[in-house]
Specification:
There is one protein chain. The chain is an alpha/beta fold and 354 residues long. It contains 13 helices and eight strands. 40% of the residues lie in helices and 13% in strands. It has a five-stranded parallel sheet with strand order 2-3-4-1-5, with helices on both faces. Strands 6-7-8 form a three-stranded parallel sheet. Helix 6 links the parallel strand 3 and strand 4. The longest helix has 23 residues. The protein is globular, with a radius of gyration of 21 Å.
């Protein structure tokens, strides 16, 4: 047993200043060390090898004519950026969940020959949060000095947000910023967990000419050859592991869901600062869609940070109702199940070590 009692996510109410939102627009910790060389293409999926080849060339091209010294402040830059060159100025990675799109997107960020302050990487939600914190014009000014903006999981569920970000990206393209994106599924686009490139390009309307679509086929790598998600543990096992694991949090599931409703999703990353493992008791199906979507964001932040999740109650594949899994946010829920399952496997090592 550790000397200190477990931490509690419910006891945390983080406040995140705007400058931190900008500074944290880098690949999440899980993708700190990924590179094109660490992406292992499936030999049965030639589109994966082709995607690596094209992205390597795209990254190399972004270094041509690089002359900015990076003497740019957070809310301004030393001189006006150059206009965008002719031709495609962006790439869109088109593939189902779990085929390594984020790995490739982060590899592109790392491979682009520019200092980190001139590259930005974030999810669509993080980008909209930045606009909310800085305002539209200030966000344009702040990001216009960048060489590359990578947007993971471009959200297409809300038409208003899609138009807002598409307008922002248009301004950035005019300023010479290169773009790279993956996307989420539109309501009603149930398919097999993928969002067709043609639909993505239609949604971003005037920006479509700036994107080259790269299709990446394959199955969810998180389950290739791996066992099914482990069954839940008992409340006693979860509590014992929380007390025995330094930096672990321990919360009952229902109060945690209530707490998430009082914390803006932009702060969920800060909510998990310093947490080494999340222990949950009494996991049950989420009661409504708003709660479910907040849980999806938390699952994304935990997965980004590689925080194991040990839980009692129902298995993670029973979190969302059949209605949710067949609705417009289907892909989000399947992604959350996939990621929580992976984190549950990691947490099994903690429980079995006690």
């Amino acid at each position: 047993m550790t000397d200190a009692a477990p931490l509690s996510l419910c006891a945390r109410e983080p406040h995140v200043p705007a400058d931190r939102l900008v500074a944290e627009m880098v690949p999440p910790p899980r993708f700190d060390s990924v590179r094109f060389s660490t992406y292992i293409p499936d030999p049965n999926q030639p589109s994966q090898t082709e995607a690596v080849r094209v992205l390597e060339g795209f990254a190399a091209g972004l270094g041509q004519g690089a002359g900015d010294s990076g003497k740019r402040r957070l809310f301004g830059f030393a001189r006006a950026p150059k206009k965008a060159p002719a031709g495609p100025r962006g790439v869109y990675l088109d593939g189902g969940y779990g085929v390594g799109k984020t790995h490739l997107l982060a590899s592109l960020w790392h491979a682009t020959p520019a200092e980190p302050a001139l590259k930005a990487f974030g999810t669509f939600v993080e980008l909209t949060n930045l606009v909310g914190a800085l305002g539209f014009q200030q966000t344009v000014q702040t990001l216009s000095g960048h060489r590359l903006l990578c947007i993971d999981e471009f959200e297409l569920d809300d038409p208003g947000d899609t138009v807002l970000v598409s307008t922002l990206l248009g301004k950035l393209v005019d300023a010479g910023v290169a773009l790279a994106a993956t996307s989420n599924t539109l309501p009603g686009k149930l398919g097999e967990g993928r969002f067709a490139a043609a639909d993505f390009l239609r949604e971003i309307q005037g920006l479509s000419a700036h994107f080259r679509a790269l299709r990446i086929d394959g199955e969810d790598y998180r389950h290739r050859g791996l066992p099914e998600a482990p069954p839940p543990y008992s409340d006693e096992q979860v509590t014992k592991t929380a007390h025995a694991t330094e930096g672990a949090s321990l919360d009952a599931f229902s109060p945690l869901l209530e707490h998430l409703s009082r914390v803006h999703p932009s702060r969920y990353g800060a909510l998990t600062d310093g947490i080494k493992a999340v222990c949950l008791t009494g996991v049950r199906p989420v009661p409504d869609q708003s709660t479910a979507l907040r849980l999806v964001v938390l699952a994304d932040r935990l997965y980004d940070r590689e925080v194991p999740v040990l839980a009692s109650g129902v298995p993670f594949d029973q979190l969302f109702s059949d209605e949710m899994l067949n609705g417009g946010y289907r892909k989000k829920y399947f992604r959350a199940i996939s990621r929580l399952t992976a984190l549950a496997r990691d947490a099994g090592k903690l429980a079995n070590a006690r």
